[in-house]
Structure formats: C-alpha cells, structure tokens
Amino acid sequence: MSRPGTHHPADVPKRSRGHTVSVNASRFPCGAPDTGEETSVGSEHALVDRSGAPIRLLVVDNDVRVRAAIVQTIALEPDLLMVAEAADARAALALAGNADPSVALVDVLLPDDVTGLALVRSLNQRAGCAVVAMSVRGGLRSAALAAGAVAFVEKESDIDALLDTVRAAAPHLA
Description:
Blueprint: H1 12-15, E1 21-23, E2 55-60, H2 64-75, E3 80-86, H3 89-99, E4 103-107, H4 116-124, E5 130-135, H5 141-146, E6 151-154, H6 159-169
Parallel strand pairs: 2-3, 2-4, 4-5, 5-6
Antiparallel strand pairs: 1-6
C-alpha cells in the first residue's frame, strides 16, 4: 500500500480498477447517505471531528507489511492516531480493552482460531468502536457487513479510500 499523488476521493473507483469501498448504511454510526444498503464513500460523505480529538485506530492484520504500511500512513495524518496493532484476533481483543480505539480496521481473513469475522462481531459490541473490515477477497463484503462492520475496504483499494472510510466510520464524529 503506497500513498498515491493528490487526487479527488470521488475518483477512487475509476483509478482502483473497480475496487470499491462499501458501507452498511444501517450500521453507520453517524448516519450514512440515504442511497441504499451499500454505497461508495467519497469526500462528500467524510465527516469532520468537531471535538478536535484524533480518531483512535486499532489495526488487525496478520501481514506485517500491510500493518507497517498502514501505520506509516497513519503517522502522516494529523487527525488519526494509531493506538494499537495486532497480528491476530486474540491479541486484538486484549489490546482493544486498554487502547480504547474509536475505529478498528480488521482483516477478515485472519489465520487463527478466532476468525476475522468473529473478531468483527466482538469488536462491534464495544461501545464507541466502529469496525471497518478489509480483505483481498471482495466476496467477503456481505459477510463482513452482516457481522457488524460499518464498512468494507478491499486491500487493493487506494490508500486514500481506506483513510476516508476510517474517518467516516468514526463514531465520535458528527
């Protein structure tokens, strides 16, 4: 995941060769657009944090390179704060209690005995924590949204689409 040049977020689906970001409108913490069950997230849906507090992010992915790329990108974003990262679901659950993330970015294809979808369900039950699911397999979108994720991002999507989705999913935004 490398950060591309400057562009308008609404152009992401064209540049990403069909890779889109979807949200489950019924689960969106701050009110999703009224355009149906799944929709693309662009700058017109990005929300502003009125409190000025950064969005606290937990990243869960077993691939150290993916986690490192996300962590490095988050470090460049003044409104996002990496509070924890984990390689598996058990570590993520342990860290979530202490780190108090406002958004958890979760790979739904975790290789341990607690699956990524089970982790989405568990984290979804935490007050104030929205879950954004991600995967290399777009076919898991429906399962992730059904498990309680407020959004789904394909890993091959543009990094700006991922950042926009995290910002839009944060429950403390208004």
